[in-house]
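Retro notes (design track)

What went well: tokenization of the new backbones is finally stable.
What didn't: we kept losing track of which sequence belonged to which structure.
Fix going forward: every design gets posted as structure first, then sequence, in one message. First example under the new rule, 673 residues:
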């Protein structure tokens, strides 16, 4: 990491540096060793890491300072010195008033040392999908870093910045907020060259009050865009388009939102994407959960690098001539991904990319777990959109399902932080679903009772009771009819839903969409549905499979004669049993000894979809592989002596007799028992 020595870090966070148990003058000491990473999780500490000790809800990072320093961390940023600190001869302490503030200050300092162009992603919904699309496009031509997972808040954004290295030419940083002032603090850290604003919707209204408040809060980023930089806005969003009009002095007085930094707009360029943007679209063909295709129109020739001097950011719109149209294919689900793709296209164009490379990047982008991610099981398709929810994204999900094939089932839960109109906003979602081609709507949670009532009331075929005369519907036989011949059920809690999942009458070929606010914990619902839909369970934990079930499975494999009940029981006792199942459900490899099990336990959680298109490899390796071929190649590699160095990274030194060749066959997945 550039310019990240202990004295420089201490200065950046306004901290007091302690080395060898004594406070040290940062102006006098010379230390050449630079930090190699900055972390807040002691388990992620490596040699020469900087550990920032933060007190959380479940653990206090200060309790792990001595451990990480003993294991090779370069230093720890902390609010209090550990007992016996004066005896410390290995590692250093940087004492600060507030660790969270220090984390942000250090990230801002490190950002200032980086020669990288950053695109910030801001908006009420669609940030993560847009981030993935922008990063996928840029990575075609540039080494690109991006926000991992949901690291988009005042802790996640600094950690994202710390992941950027000198080899990266581009970075894409997702910036999420829920209160006034947060975007200002994130902007001070990120200092983006480009900001993409996706939309303004009814999110976090408990704090931001109304849509004008949402716009004001997110527009705090404007003052942090580098001079001469670029703001990219959705022209189909009236609130966002008002920023374009404000920039061009075309805004009507009554449309001007107070507290928008008009001076900041003067120093940056503004481009639009959408039906009337610098980049637009037509001929959308939706394939439901399979994605969509459309024609992208580059209406502003000034976006082409050869039309600009020194590849600078484009300025005002040029005459709309020499339009270019290209066909685009998106794997991500929903028509709203067309808009996100247009945003990614503008970012690619202003960075000198050709349309051909841009559409290649768009086609390569895949959904993220919890964000409209399709999970194919042997029985049905589960669409995991469980990470978060608000009325706008709920309606987009309903639209997606209405265009999907098979029987369409929605499991929707409470949306949080909607303010005083939360009940009405839930009811509106139910009414919206009633007007769409949805077969079953299942509502879960206290607030979602209003969604359920809205669905029933919109176009009710009964007098409020089902045919059995019951008010509470818990099974397929109890469902109430409403909407476009749709059915609906209601559960007060997630736990009540989970206990009734097998009674819902789910059928082979169903498409099941799951969405709720993160606090509802609907990831557990997704996991249970995947289990229900999978004939061969890829699970871990001895509770999931009984020994008799395991022996029955093994009896169907060519390993059966070599696998004694005693050996399997021993493996289960150590929770280290593993196997690989082919597409017919036959086991094709099994560890020979408990030592084998111990090694292969590191690579738990491998899942390949039914069509062998996507494979996720989790556990200790934390990798992602794109095809069944790559999965087979990986297992072949892990079964050879060439993998010795790979295993050693995880503290395992296998002997030569450990290795075995993995069969080259159609791998369907890994199961753990």
């Amino acid at each position: 990491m550039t310019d990240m020595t202990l004295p420089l870090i201490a200065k950046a966070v306004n901290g007091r540096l302690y080395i060898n148990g004594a406070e040290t003058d940062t102006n006098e000491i010379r230390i050449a060793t630079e930090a190699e990473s900055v972390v807040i999780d002691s388990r992620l500490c490596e040699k020469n890491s900087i550990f920032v000790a933060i007190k959380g809800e479940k653990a206090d990072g200060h309790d792990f300072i001595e451990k990480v320093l003993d294991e090779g961390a370069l230093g720890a940023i902390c609010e209090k010195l550990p007992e016996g600190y004066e005896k410390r001869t290995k590692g250093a302490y940087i004492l600060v008033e507030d660790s969270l503030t220090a984390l942000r200050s250090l990230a801002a300092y490190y950002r200032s040392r980086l020669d990288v162009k950053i695109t910030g992603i801001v908006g009420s919904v669609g940030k993560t999908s847009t981030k993935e699309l922008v990063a996928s496009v840029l990575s075609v031509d540039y080494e690109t870093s991006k926000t991992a997972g949901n690291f988009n808040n005042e802790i996640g954004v600094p950690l994202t910045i710390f992941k950027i290295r000198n080899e990266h030419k581009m970075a894409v940083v997702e910036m999420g907020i829920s209160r006034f002032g947060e975007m200002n603090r994130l902007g001070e850290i990120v200092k983006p060259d480009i900001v993409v604003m996706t939309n303004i919707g009814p999110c976090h209204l408990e704090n931001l009050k109304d849509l004008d408040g949402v716009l004001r809060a997110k527009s705090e980023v404007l003052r942090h865009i580098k001079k001469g930089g670029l703001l990219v806005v959705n022209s189909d969003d009236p609130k966002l388009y008002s920023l374009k009009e404000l920039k061009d002095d075309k805004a009507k007085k009554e449309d001007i939102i107070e507290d928008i930094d008009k001076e900041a707009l003067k120093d940056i360029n503004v481009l639009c994407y959408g039906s009337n943007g610098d980049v637009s679209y037509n001929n959308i063909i939706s394939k439901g959960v399979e994605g969509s295709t459309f024609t992208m129109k580059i209406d502003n020739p000034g976006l082409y690098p050869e039309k600009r001097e020194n590849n600078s950011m484009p300025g005002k719109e040029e005459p709309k001539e020499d339009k270019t149209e290209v066909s685009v294919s998106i794997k991500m689900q929903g028509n709203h991904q067309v808009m996100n793709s247009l945003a990614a296209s503008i970012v690619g164009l202003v960075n000198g990319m050709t349309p051909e490379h841009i559409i290649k990047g768009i086609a390569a982008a895949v959904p993220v777990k919890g964000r409209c991610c399709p999970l194919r099981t042997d029985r049905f398709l589960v669409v995991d959109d469980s990470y978060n929810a608000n009325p706008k994204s709920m309606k987009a999900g309903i639209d997606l399902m209405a265009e999907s094939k098979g029987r369409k089932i929605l499991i929707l839960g409470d949306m949080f932080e909607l303010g005083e109109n939360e009940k009405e906003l839930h009811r509106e979602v139910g009414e919206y679903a009633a007007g769409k081609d949805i077969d079953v709507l299942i509502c879960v949670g206290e607030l979602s009772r209003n969604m359920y009532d809205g669905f029933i009331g919109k176009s009710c075929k009964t007098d409020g009771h089902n045919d059995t005369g019951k008010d509470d519907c818990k099974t397929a036989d109890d469902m109430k009819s409403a909407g476009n011949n749709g059915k609906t059920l209601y559960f007060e809690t997630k736990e009540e839903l989970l206990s009734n999942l097998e009674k819902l009458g789910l059928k082979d070929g169903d498409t099941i969409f799951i969405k709720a606010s993160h606090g509802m914990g609907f990831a557990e619902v997704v996991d249970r549905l995947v289990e229900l839909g999978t004939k061969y369970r890829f699970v871990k934990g001895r509770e999931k499979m009984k020994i008799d079930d395991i022996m029955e499975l093994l009896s169907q494999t060519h390993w059966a004669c070599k696998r004694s009940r005693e050996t399997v029981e021993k493996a289960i006792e150590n929770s280290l049993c593993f196997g690989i199942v082919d597409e017919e459900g036959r086991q094709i490899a099994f560890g020979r000894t408990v030592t084998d099990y111990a090694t292969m336990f590191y690579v738990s959680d491998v899942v390949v979809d039914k069509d062998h298109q996507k494979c996720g490899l989790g556990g200790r390796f934390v990798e992602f592989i794109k095809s069944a071929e790559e999965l087979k190649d990986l297992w072949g590699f892990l079964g050879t002596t060439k993998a010795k160095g790979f295993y050693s990274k995880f503290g395992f030194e296998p002997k030569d007799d450990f290795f075995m060749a993995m069969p080259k066959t159609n791998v369907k997945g890994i199961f753990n028992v």
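Added context from the reviewer: The two ends are 42 Å apart (CA to CA).
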